[in-house]
Amino acid sequence: MEPCLKQASSDGHRVRVFLGHTCAKQYRAKALNTDPRFEIMSHDLGECDELGFFFAASNRDLVVVASSQSDEGTAASFTALSMAHSTPRIGIEDMYGSIIPTLRATKAANVGAFNRVCVIDDVARAMIMKAYPETTDSIVVTGGPQFDKTLDMRSRLHSLRATLRSKVNVSEEQKVFLVVGDLVGTSEILDLLTTAIRNVGLSDSAKIILRAHPRAKESEKEVARHYLEESEHSAMFVDPGRELAPTSDDLLPAADVVLSAMSTTSHNAILLEIPGTVYVGTPACRALLQQEKSMDKTPEVMAGAGWQVDTPNDMVNVINAILGKGDAEALLRLMAVQKKIASYNDGKATQRVYTEMKKLMQA
Fold first, then answer.
1. Which pLDDT score is estimated for 51?
2. What letter would DSSP give residue 278?
3. Which of 274, 289, 293, 281 is nearest to 338 (CA)?
4. How many angstroms separate the Cα of 167 from the Cα of each of 171, 174, 181, 239, 299?
5. What DSSP line would sit under 145-206, residue for residue?
6. Interaxial angle between packed helices 312-322 and 186-199, expressed in degrees from 0 to 180 and rounded to the nearest 10
7. Could you give the CA distance from residue 93 to residue 19 in angstroms, rounded to a whole number?
8. pTM for the whole thing?
9. d(CA 89, CA 129)
10. Residue 57: pLDDT band by 50, 70, 90 thresholds?
């Protein structure tokens, strides 16, 4: 959402931002950079009183809500909508289905929902329409502003790949697996992956890059440390370093296969048309997906843009497909879906969302 708010500031609009929960903590720890033109208020929540003060502090022409499917994000979105009253309201969905918990909450409480909902593509639009057909007229496919930067990465993919792989002494013939940790389930993903690598005979050549989730529990971080430093698989692990690749997204050009439970990094992998995009369905990963999205499989898997992997044998099948030894038809189908989804990523989502914001303000 920030690129759209920056555009609003550049056009002379006053932008006031409320940050709650994790964002508030990151902001106060100076780990979250924001545009200096924004007026920031942050609080960890019980947030109703704080948001009430935020809304009472000045008049407003538009309420912009960054949707999140987490409990804390949904609570913040619902509270903002309930206090917006007659002010026009626009929701910006960051990932497939992330705005649905907010729509559910507003409908149950008979609170005025959004005048406009901006979504990343037709897959996202169809998900909302299926769950809440009454929202059809308010949904606009704009693309995701947070993915505009991916277009630049796509244009430099080959040079970035060469730089990252050179940094860790990996040849183009070797396969690199990027594991993007989540709040839970890292050990299950690593166990599944290392077993599959051994079973396909790549233990001596395959390399794994592991990035733990910044908000993962200490037990998850300890698992990562054990694999990196003490396990029998330690020699497989490499990392070009955070100076060269600060985030897991920055590591994508180096990867042949990307594994996560439901990370945004995996969606970026689809936009980069990485055919080895894998969503892992081990018990902890499935529980997380159920908790966050009330789904058994990610929307990307259901759309056919990523592989569903629940067991080491499933992972073996994916690796063989990537190596050209497996299900070629399945691989081609997946690549075609990825190409279609990537076609929405034209670098102009920020401008399209901002156009919708201006329409509501002018109305």
1. 66
2. E
3. 274
4. 10, 14, 22, 8, 34
5. GGGHHHHHHHHTHHHHHHHHHHHTT--TTS-EEEEE--SS-HHHHHHHHHHHHHHTT-TTT-
6. 60
7. 17
8. 0.90
9. 18
10. low
Q: Which residue has the higher pLDDT, 100 or 230?
A: 100
pLDDT in tens, 200-219: 999 999 999 999 887 777 87
Distance CA 288, CA 283 (A): 9
Conformational region of residue 176, where left means phi above 0, alpha means psi within -120 to 50, and beta covers everything else? beta
| Region 32-57 average pLDDT | 73
Could you list the beta-strand ranges (E) of the chain. 16-20, 39-43, 63-66, 89-92, 116-119, 139-141, 176-180, 207-211, 257-260, 276-280, 307-309
Q: Is residue 268 classed as helix, strand or coil in its secondary structure? A: helix
Over residues 279-304, the pLDDT tens digits come to 999 999 999 899 888 889 999 999 99
Q: Are 17 and 51 in contact (CB under 8 A)?
A: no
Query: CB–CB of 280/263 below 8 Å?
Result: no
By DSSP bridging, strand 257-260 and strand 176-180 are parallel
Task: Report which of 290, 304, 299, 292 is spatially closest to residue 335, judged by C-alpha positions.
Answer: 304
Over 70: is that where the pLDDT of 189 sits? yes
- What does residue 135 show for φ and ψ, rounded to 5 degrees? -90, 0
Which residues, listed in sequence order, are joined to residue 176 by a DSSP beta bridge? 207
Q: Read off the tokens for 171.
A: 């040849």
Rounded to an integer, what distance in angstroms lies between the CA atom of residue 287 and that of residue 21? 22
User: For residues 63 and 91, is the Cβ–Cβ distance under 8 A?
Assistant: no
